[in-house]
Write a structure and sequence with these properties.
The structure holds 2 protein chains of 2 kinds.
Chain A lengths: L8 E12 L2 E8 L13 E6 L3 E6 L10 E6 L3 H8 L5 E8 L14 E6 L3 H13 L7 E7 L8 H8 L5 E7 L9 E2 L2 H8 L6 E5 L2 H14 L6 E4 L15 E2 L2 E2 L6 E3 H4 L7
Parallel strand pairs in A: 7-8, 7-11, 8-9, 9-10, 11-12
Antiparallel strand pairs in A: 1-2, 1-6, 2-5, 3-4, 3-6, 12-15, 13-14
Helix pairs in contact in A: 4-5
Chain B lengths: L1 E5 L3 H11 L1 E7 L5 E5 L24 E10 L2 E5 L8 E6 L1 H14 L6 H9 E6 L24 E5 L3 E6 L2 H9 L5 E2 L6 H12 L9 H5 L2 H5 L3 H6 L7 H5 L6 E7 L4 E7 L19 H19 L11 H5 L6 H9 L2
Parallel strand pairs in B: 2-6, 6-7, 7-8
Antiparallel strand pairs in B: 1-9, 1-10, 2-3, 4-5, 4-12, 8-9, 11-12
The chains are: A alpha/beta, B alpha+beta.
Chain lengths: ~280, ~350
């Protein structure tokens, strides 16, 4: 009998962290207490509660973490609401890893990296950022521009304060959409903030966030002189199989689950604008 | 090597195949259509050109149980209840459906292999039957299919006097070896007269000269962004019939069903024509029926060929032409684009 990727493994939830009012980060290991499988930053896994549903989520922990995997999940539908209601010790099912991941060992190597994220869009980038942090000598400077609706909606805020801000040769720029008591940082939308900061156009950009943010930020980056080939993003569409067979997550002739989720904007420019 | 069997021994031939494995062949239904059904003593093969539904369900059934779960408190048990398929043979598959299997192979047998499909494929012998009376909705020749000499493990030709058989694969040779005592060797050219006659009919069919050139010469984005999709899709009622009867449509859904004493996870046929196909909690990437209609034809005429050395995802069986309630179909799409 052939191996069957559609049949999942069992994962045990060992920790649940409330990141924001609607985002929780779930720590998952196998029933033997070990990591379920290895992955590349940017790859995803199908997480399921049998009887509730199955969905694709980016693995937010770095592959350099040898003990467990983490998923940062926003509560927005049937499955995610169920996941948000569960307690530590709950078993779920996991299968993967799926997708191409970010080219951390090729294109990104030795480059100055600029991460731009909005809201839950930080989740897929966290894996890359922590990977780069753990292999700091392999990469140039790191700049992280991250924004959300409010201070309370900044995913991984504590990790940003404790670890990213103190990392060598790393600059972190945070912004929130509106003025808020107890916030003395930048206020304003991501696309404008990026333009204000005028990052060096030699940087390789890794961007993820809501479509409207991506659209305006990309336009801003182009104004600054960035080229499509140096700007990467990670996509999300409805998926069932995660292996390019069920037929629904395609953008033109590419399947997001298999050929993506990571695309450069020059790749996307050759595909229909249907996402 | 060509073999033959006197046509009045057809029942004995079927009985011999069915002795070693399940045998399926097209059988007339009460409504005038035909469908693949299991052969048993007395079963008569349909004389219809083709079955209403394609033969894809032999390898990609409408519903497949993927696995089961037992959920108790916080614990989950995954039950892999996959069983090896029994050996079976399908007789009377037409050239279009036989080609469809090789198209489905390019989806299900590429890494990672779909074990459910692969198991059935390994255990099934496909015995095709050459067409002699192609009908006006047929256009398999447009996709390079020779209905007078169809693919499959074994090709057969039926004349008034004989059933001729020729093995194309190792599996087909083993099949022939197993029934050799009722066959006699013959000259390979005994079927040529029939083939020539059928080809003459085919050349006169209305879609014999439909050209797919437009889709080979224009870019993905040019075709995708064409204004023609609006008009073509205008009347589509999103019934999904085209998908259902199509031998190459393979999009699927995965669903869970709580039986009260466990959860069954199964996959079912799905259709890109349906509004919820791409619907997510936050958004839907294909909101209009035009987008969904366009997806179906772009997939068959552009996306699939792009990823498979130019091979189209249509076999010209004509089922969607005869069954679409608004008389829209892939031939009209191909012709409309070709008209420029």
């Amino acid at each position: 009998m052939h191996n069957e990727t559609l049949i999942p493994k069992i994962g045990v939830v060992t920790d649940i962290r409330q990141d924001t009012p609607d985002v929780k980060t779930f720590r998952v290991v196998g029933t033997d207490g070990k990591k379920l499988f290895e992955h590349i930053p940017g790859q995803c896994a199908m997480v399921s509660m049998p009887g509730v549903g199955e969905g694709m989520f980016s693995i937010t922990s770095s592959p350099t973490n040898t003990e467990f995997m983490e998923f940062s999940i926003k509560k927005c539908g049937t499955l995610t609401s169920w996941l948000h209601s569960m307690d530590v010790g709950q078993q779920i099912t996991v299968r993967g890893p799926y997708g191409n991941g970010f080219p951390v060992e090729t294109t990104f190597k030795g480059k100055d990296l600029l991460f731009i994220a909005g809201g839950i869009g930080l989740a897929p980038l966290r894996s890359v950022i922590n990977y780069v942090r753990d292999k700091r000598e392999n990469y140039g400077s790191v700049q992280i521009i991250y924004g959300s609706r409010s201070k309370d909606d900044l995913v991984d805020y504590q990790e940003i304060l404790d670890e990213w801000m103190s990392c060598p040769n790393t600059e972190v720029n945070l912004t929130i959409d509106r003025e808020q008591e107890g916030w003395d940082g930048h206020v304003g939308f991501i696309p404008n903030y990026v333009k204000e900061l005028e990052p060096d156009t030699s940087k390789t950009v890794v961007m993820c966030g809501p479509p409207i943010m991506i659209k305006f930020t990309l336009a801003g980056l182009k104004e600054l002189g960035f080229v499509d080939t140096n700007v990467f993003t990670t996509m999300e569409l409805r998926m069932k199989c995660a292996i390019g067979k069920c037929g629904r997550c395609n953008i033109g002739n590419k399947y997001v689950c298999k050929d993506g989720p990571v695309f450069s904007f020059d790749q996307l420019s050759e595909l229909p604008n249907e996402y | 090597m060509m073999f033959r069997l006197p046509i009045n021994e057809l029942d004995g031939f079927f009985a011999k195949i069915a002795a070693g494995r399940r045998l399926y062949l097209p059988v007339d239904q009460n409504d005038g259509t035909s469908a693949f059904a299991e052969w048993s003593e007395g079963t008569k093969m349909s004389e219809n050109l083709n079955t209403l539904r394609s033969a894809k369900s032999f390898f990609f059934p409408q519903v497949t149980n993927l696995c089961d779960f037992n959920v108790k408190d916080k614990e989950i048990e995954v039950i892999d209840n996959r069983a090896d398929s029994e050996d079976f043979a399908v007789f009377g598959v037409r050239g279009c459906d036989a080609r469809a299997f090789t198209i489905l192979d390019k989806v299900f047998l590429v890494d990672p292999i779909d074990s459910y499909y692969a198991t059935r494929r390994e255990h099934g012998v496909i015995i095709t039957l050459a067409c002699t009376m192609p009908e006006e909705h047929c256009f398999c020749n447009v996709f390079g299919i020779d209905a007078t000499s169809p693919e499959g493990d074994v090709t057969t030709w039926k004349t008034d006097s004989y059933l001729y058989l020729n093995a194309n694969t190792e599996k087909g040779e083993a099949f022939i070896a197993g029934i050799k005592d009722i066959l006699e060797e013959c000259a390979a050219d005994e079927v040529e007269a029939q083939r020539a006659k059928t080809k003459e009919i085919m050349a006169k069919l209305p879609f014999a000269n439909v050209s797919t050139e437009y889709f080979e010469k224009n870019t993905l984005l040019d075709i995708f962004n064409s204004e023609k999709w609006e008009k073509l899709s205008e009347a589509c009622i999103a019934c999904g019939t085209c998908t259902f009867v199509c031998p190459t449509c393979q999009c699927y859904d995965i669903k869970d069903f709580d039986t009260g004493h466990g959860v069954k996870r199964y996959r079912t046929w799905d259709s890109c024509m349906y509004a919820d196909f791409t619907k997510m909690a936050a958004a839907n990437s294909r909101n209009s029926q035009m987008q969904r209609f366009r997806q179906r034809f772009m997939h068959k005429l552009v996306y699939f060929p792009d990823n498979n050395n130019g091979e189209f995802g249509c076999v010209g069986c004509g089922r969607c032409l005869t069954r679409c309630p608004i008389s829209m179909n892939i031939v009209k799409v191909i012709k409309t684009f070709g008209e420029e």
